[in-house]
Write a structure and sequence with these properties.
heterodimer, A: mainly beta, Dna Ligase, domain 1, OB fold (Dihydrolipoamide Acetyltransferase, E2P), 2 domains, five-stranded antiparallel beta sheet, 1 helix, 7% helix, B: 233 residues, mainly alpha, Growth Hormone, Chain: A, two-stranded antiparallel ribbon, 7 helices, disordered N terminus
Chain lengths: 176, 233
C-alpha cells in the first residue's frame, strides 16, 4: 500500500557545495540518496514530494563536512501482511510463481495455490485448472494476499497466497 | 476498536481451506505473528494439508475461537492455539512515532504522475533519471486505478468512518474495488467484527463506487475514441 509519510535524515555536505545554491544542493543530494531506496520500516521510497524543514547545519569535528537535519515528505510503498494486492506474474515454475506488484516481488508457493490448479510445463509454463477455464502464466494479473514479508538491504520480498475467497486470476472484463 | 491480529506459526508449511480463513504458514519457515483479541465467531476449518520435514498431525476439523491478545515472540509448540485469520494491522506494525497517512492507489497515481510530468519539463539534463522503483510504483498505481477522481472516492468512503472504519481499511476497500459486500468482508477481515453495523452502509458505498468506476471507464473509452478519431482526420 502507498503511504504519505514524513521522514527525517541527516545530510552531510562538503563545503564545496556551499554558497547560493546550498539548499538546492541539499535537496538534490537528498533525492539522489533516498529516492528508490528501501528500508524495512518504511518500505520503498518511491518519490519525495516536498521538503518540510531543513535544520541548522552542524560542522562535524575533524572532517569539515556539515550535517543538516532534513525533514521531508515522501510517498512510500510498503507491503503488509494481510494486504490484498494485484500483481503481475513474472515467472512460473513447479514450486509456484513469482509476481510483481510495484517494486515488490511476491512469491506464491504451489501449496498456496488452489488444489485444482496443476502445473503445466512447456514453452509457457503455467498453472491451469482441470477444465482449463483458469490459467496463470507469465503476465497474468492475479489478486493475492500477502502472508509474510522479508526485507533485504535493497528490496522487500513477500510470500503470498491465492488460496482464499475472491483471490486468484483477475478476469479481463473484455474476455468475461 | 482496532483488532490486532498476529499469527504465531512454527515454520512448517501448511495450507488449509477455511471459509474466510487465510492464515498461512510461510514456506520459508518464518514466524508469522498473529496476535488476536476477542474474535467473536468460531469457525471450522478443514484439515490442513502440508508438506514438511516433520509430520505433526493436525486435528481434523477444529474450530478456532478468539484467543487473548498476547504477543508471544518465541514460537513454542501450541497445538491448542489455532491459527487466526491474518488481519491487516498497519497501526500495530508501523513504528509508533511515525505518523503516516495511507493512500489509495488512485491518489498515489495522481501524485506520482504529477512528479513525472514535472520531470519531463525539467529533464533537459539527460543524467536526471527517475529511479526504477518510481517507474514500477507509478505503473502499479496506474494499473490498479479504477477511478479517475480520488476526491469523490474519498468522499464516498468517508461516510464509513463514522462507523469506526480506519483510514487504512478505507484504502484497502478502494484499492480492491470490490463488487459485493461479501467480498469486502472476506478481503478485509478486520471489518468482520463490525459486520452487522457495516453491511447496510457498505452496500450504499459499493453502489456509489460502482457508479464512479463506470463513469471512469466511460471517460477513458471516450478519450481513446477521440484519440483514434484525431489520428484519422
Amino acid at each position: 500500500m502507498f503511504f504519505h509519510i514524513v521522514l527525517e535524515r541527516n545530510m552531510q555536505l562538503h563545503p564545496r557545495h556551499f554558497g547560493r545554491n546550498l539548499r538546492d544542493n541539499i535537496v538534490a543530494k537528498l533525492m539522489k540518496d533516498v529516492e528508490g531506496t528501501c528500508s524495512g520500516r518504511h518500505g520503498f521510497v518511491v518519490a519525495i514530494t516536498g521538503i518540510e524543514n531543513i535544520g541548522k547545519g552542524l560542522i562535524r569535528d575533524g572532517t569539515g563536512f556539515v550535517s543538516f537535519p532534513v525533514k521531508y515528505q515522501c510517498v512510500v510503498f510498503r507491503p503488509f501482511k494481510g494486504e490484498i494486492l494485484e500483481a503481475v506474474v513474472t515467472m512460473v515454475n513447479k514450486m509456484g510463481f513469482f509476481a510483481e506488484a510495484g517494486p515488490v516481488q511476491i512469491f506464491v508457493s504451489n501449496h498456496l495455490i488452489p488444489d485444482d490448479m496443476e502445473f503445466q510445463s512447456g514453452d509457457m509454463p503455467n498453472y491451469t485448472t482441470s477444465d482449463g477455464s483458469v490459467k496463470i502464466q507469465k503476465d497474468s494479473e492475479v489478486r493475492l494476499k500477502i502472508i509474510g514479508t522479508r526485507v533485504d538491504a535493497t528490496e522487500i520480498f513477500c510470500i503470498g497466497t491465492i488460496k482464499d475467497d475472491f483471490l486468484g486470476v483477475i478476469n479481463d472484463p473484455a474476455a468475461a | 476498536m482496532e483488532k490486532g491480529a498476529t499469527l504465531k506459526s512454527k515454520g512448517k508449511e501448511g495450507s488449509f481451506k477455511g471459509k474466510d480463513d487465510s492464515s498461512m504458514k510461510s514456506k520459508y519457515g518464518r514466524k508469522v505473528h498473529i496476535n488476536f483479541e476477542g474474535f467473536p465467531e468460531p469457525k471450522t476449518l478443514s484439515s490442513p494439508k502440508y508438506v514438511g520435514k516433520d509430520d505433526t498431525p493436525f486435528p481434523k476439523g477444529y474450530s478456532s475461537k478468539g484467543g487473548k491478545g498476547d504477543k508471544i515472540a518465541n514460537g513454542g509448540k501450541t497445538p491448542a492455539k489455532e491459527p487466526q485469520p491474518l488481519e491487516l494491522n498497519i497501526e500495530l506494525e508501523l513504528p509508533e512515532n511515525v505518523k503516516c497517512m495511507s493512500m489509495m492507489d488512485c491518489e498515489a497515481a495522481s501524485i506520482l504522475q504529477g512528479i513525472q510530468d514535472q520531470m519531463v519539463t525539467l529533464s533537459k539534463d539527460p543524467e536526471l533519471k527517475l529511479p526504477v522503483p518510481f517507474d514500477k510504483g507509478l505503473q502499479y498505481a496506474k494499473r490498479g486505478v479504477h477511478y479517475t477522481n480520488p476526491q469523490s472516492v474519498r468522499k464516498v468512503l468517508e461516510t464509513l468512518t463514522k462507523h469506526g472504519v480506519s483510514n487504512s481499511e478505507l484504502c484497502e476497500i478502494a484499492n480492491v474495488g470490490p463488487e459485493s459486500v461479501d467480498e469486502v468482508f472476506s478481503l478485509v477481515p478486520s471489518l468482520k467484527a463490525k459486520r452487522s453495523k457495516l453491511s447496510e452502509p457498505l452496500k450504499g458505498v459499493l453502489s456509489e463506487l460502482a457508479k464512479l468506476k463506470e463513469s471512469a471507464s466511460l471517460a477513458s473509452q471516450l478519450e481513446e475514441e477521440s484519440q483514434h478519431g484525431g489520428k484519422f482526420t
